Amino acid sequence: MIDEMTTVLEPAPLPDFVETKYVKDITSRALSFIKAGFPVHFRGPSGTGKTTLAMHLASKVERPVVMIHGDEEFTTSDLVGGEYGYRIRKVVDRFISRVLKTEEDMVKRWVDNRLTVACKYGFTLIYDEFTRSRPEANNILLSILQEKMMDLPVGRGGEQPYLRVDPDFTAIFTSNPEEYAGVHRSQDALRDRMITMDLDHFDYDTELAVTQAKSKLSKQDSQIIVNIVRSLRESGKCEFAPTVRGCIMIAKSLKVQKLTPSRANNVFMQMCQDILASETSRVGSKTNQDRVKEIVRELVAKELGIGKTIDVGKKSGKDTTGVDTIESKKVEEKKERKESESLAGVSS
Ligand SMILES: Nc1ncnc2c1ncn2[C@@H]1O[C@H](COP(=O)(O)OP(=O)(O)OP(=O)(O)O)[C@@H](O)[C@H]1O
Ligand SMILES: [Mg+2]
User: Fold this and answer.
1) Which residue's CA is the closest to the ligand 1 atom numbered 18?
2) How far is it, in rounded angstroms, from Cα 134 to Cα 75?
3) Does 229 score more than 80 pLDDT?
C-alpha cells in the first residue's frame, strides 16, 4: 500500500499559476463534463497549456492525482502492474521488551501500477500525451471508461480478475495532434469515450499574464515581448509557430541579466533572434533561421520604435539596437547636409 502511494500527488495550486478569464472559462467547462461523469481530453499544439490546465483541473476535482506520461515503450503492464521481483518482509517482535525477535521472508509480489491505483482508490488520472503510447497498451482503458471495470491480468494473485472502478475515478487526457515523432493516432474507440476540448494558443491577456508571472518582468516589458512573439506567430512564416514558452524564455533571460528590452540595446535583439529562430525550426537550416531572424529584427525594431522606449536621439546618431527612429534620422540628415555645405564652400 505504501509503495503504491508513492506515485500519488496531492492536488495543490501550481506556483505562478495565473487564472485569467480564458483559463477560468476552459476549466469550468471541463469541470462540468467531469461532474457529468465524462473524461476530458485537452488536444492542441505545443505550448497551448494542456498539461498545466490538466493539472489545474485535477486540483479542482479535489482528489489525489496520479500522472502517467505516454511512452512508445509502454505495455499494458506498465499501466496496470506486474510481478516485480521480491518483497522482503521483516517482522520485529518486541512482545517481551528485552528480547528482539525478527523474521524475514521473501515473496514474489504483484505491484499495482498507477492506473490500477487510480481505479482502485478513485483518484484522478492525468494521462499526459497519451497518444505517444501504442494503442495496444491503451486498450485497457476502453472498459475502464465505459463499463467502469478493469480487466486485471492473471498473476495478480488471489484477487478477482476484474476490478470495479471506484466511482470517484476521473481521467484527464492530453495530446498534441501536430507532433511529428512517435505518435499513434488516438484510437477512435478511446477518443469516442472522452470529451475532447481543442485548445489553441492563449489569448493576449493570458499569454501576457503567464509571461509576467513566470519571469517577474514588468507588465510593460512583458508586453513588448508578447507583441513580438504573437506577431511572429501571426505572420504564418515559421515552420512551427512560436509558443508562450518563447515569451517566457526571452523574459526570464532578460530578467536574470537585470535588463529590460529598452536598456538591453542589441542584446535584446539577439536574444529574441536566437530564441525564436531555434524555437520555430526543427532542423535549424540556415535559410530558415535567417528568414526568421530577419522577421524578428523588423518586429523588435517596430516594437521598440512604437513603444518609444529608447531614446536614440540623444545618442551619437547611430542606434545600437539597429532601430532607425525618425529622431536619429533627422540628426543624421542635418549632419550630412552641414558636411556637404561646408565641402561645397571649400571647392568654390
Ligand atoms: N495558467 C497558467 N499559468 C501560468 N503558467 C502557465 C499557465 N498555462 C501554461 N503555463 C506555462 O506555459 C508553458 C506551456 O504550458 P504547458 O506545458 O502546459 O503546455 P502544453 O500544451 O502541455 O505543451 P506541450 O504540448 O509542449 O507539452 C509552461 O511553461 C507552463 O508553465
Ligand atoms: Mg504538455
Assistant:
1) 49
2) 8
3) yes
